[in-house]
Write a sequence for this structure.
């Protein structure tokens, strides 16, 4: 009976496998011999593998393999991983209180949140995480790192960390806590400019941003300019990014999605809820700006609302749809590509900034020494904008932000004339 159920499962699984592009046999239907081969391979693995494996392990491995062979973003999600994904959308989860990013196939700490287990343990920005519990982090499993770092509050986790100034790796055991993460921060800058940082697009992002902008709606409080900082924003919920665009644009097209399973391209528009009308705006981007953050940046530029300053973005312009499965797991499948309002495809191309920054933000976070540039040479000639004394403090702490402020100051001066 057990063998019969395995054969039936294998039959349904094999017959559902998608044809692979570029395969000479892709157009041929799966034959009975293929089905027998799959079933026999399943039996050999279950009975002869050096360590005992059960049918559930093989079942999950088959699902993982089916999706892993498609692209880096399509994958099978266990029930726990699906729960983690759902937590990410609401900004409340069990974890350590760190933001991580992938730099040159390594996982590094981008920021540490105050009053969290990570802060208490002394984890620092720029630390490279090389292992989580018994798992060594390699390029092929970095995408799992987020789900490995998170877990129920009160559970322990051990991180192995390499810090640039220390030869030996550090081992830290931390206890996860409930992290309630705000996705938007706003601060005042020189000359009355405002700095709005969106770290990730989640369910609460639009509401958070509206609350921060509300005091600035009247003419007396309206800032002379705004820097929207999307650096190291990996994306998140597309609908959240669209509702943020809604605050800065009149009724306009934000993005178009085109996929094989769509009867016609899906178009996403803003409504007539524009705020901050007439306030000059610059968007800061870098190599960590991906997906929904690229979509927002492209829409603001294509409609003439903002200039992009920084460095080329990551280039993730694909749509992942999540389908829950009857056993509590789910699949995340790439189903479409995004196109900007001007018709450009983001996938594997990214966005080029209008003004390239003289600094490299991600190299600074990663602890890398950037190459000497013309701007470092004594007596160098000025470029698109001139350095202003009032931005010197930002030049030392955040050179890319200083560049954005100089562009913004130039725009406001031109508008004043």
């Amino acid at each position: 009976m057990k063998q019969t159920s395995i054969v039936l499962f294998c039959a349904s699984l094999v017959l559902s496998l998608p044809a692979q592009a570029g395969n000479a046999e892709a157009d041929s239907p799966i034959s009975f011999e293929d089905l027998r081969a799959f079933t026999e391979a399943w039996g050999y693995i279950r009975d002869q593998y050096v360590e005992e494996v059960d049918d559930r392990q093989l079942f999950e491995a088959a699902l993982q393999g089916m999706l892993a062979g498609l692209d880096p973003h399509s994958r099978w999600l266990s029930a726990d991983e699906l729960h983690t994904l759902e937590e990410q959308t609401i900004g409340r989860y069990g974890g350590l209180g760190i933001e991580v990013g992938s730099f040159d196939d390594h996982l590094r700490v981008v920021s540490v949140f105050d009053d969290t287990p990570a802060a208490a343990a002394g984890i620092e920005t720029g630390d490279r995480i090389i292992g989580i519990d018994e798992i060594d982090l390699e390029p092929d499993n970095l995408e799992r790192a987020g789900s490995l770092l998170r877990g129920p509050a009160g559970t322990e986790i051990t991180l192995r960390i390499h810090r640039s100034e220390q030869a030996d790796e550090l081992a830290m055991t931390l206890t996860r806590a409930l992290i309630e993460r705000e996705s938007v921060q706003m601060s005042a800058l020189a000359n009355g400019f405002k700095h709005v940082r969106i770290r990730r697009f989640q369910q609460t992002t639009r509401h958070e941003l509206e609350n921060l902008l509300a005091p600035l709606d009247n003419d007396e409080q309206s800032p002379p300019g705004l820097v929207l900082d999307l650096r190291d924003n990996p994306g998140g919920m597309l609908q959240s990014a669209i509702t943020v665009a809604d605050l800065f644009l009149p009724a306009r097209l934000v993005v178009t999605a085109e996929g094989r399973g769509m009867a016609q391209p899906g178009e996403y528009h803003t409504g007539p809820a524009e705020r901050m009308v007439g306030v000059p705006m610059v968007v800061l981007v870098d190599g960590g700006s991906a997906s929904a953050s690229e979509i927002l940046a492209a829409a603001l530029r294509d409609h003439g609302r903002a200039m992009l300053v920084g460095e080329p973005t990551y280039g993730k312009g694909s749509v992942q749809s999540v389908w829950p499965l009857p056993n509590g797991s789910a699949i995340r499948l790439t189903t479409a590509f995004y196109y900007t309002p001007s018709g450009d495809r983001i996938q594997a191309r990214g966005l080029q900034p209008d003004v390239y920054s003289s600094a490299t933000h991600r190299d600074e976070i990663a602890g890398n020494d950037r190459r000497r540039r013309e701007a470092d040479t004594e007596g160098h000639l000025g470029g698109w904008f001139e350095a202003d004394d009032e931005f010197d403090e930002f030049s030392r702490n955040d050179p890319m932000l200083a560049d954005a402020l100089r562009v913004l100051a130039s725009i406001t001066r031109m508008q004043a004339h």
Remarks:
- The chain has three domains: 2-13+29-75, 92-180, 184-416.
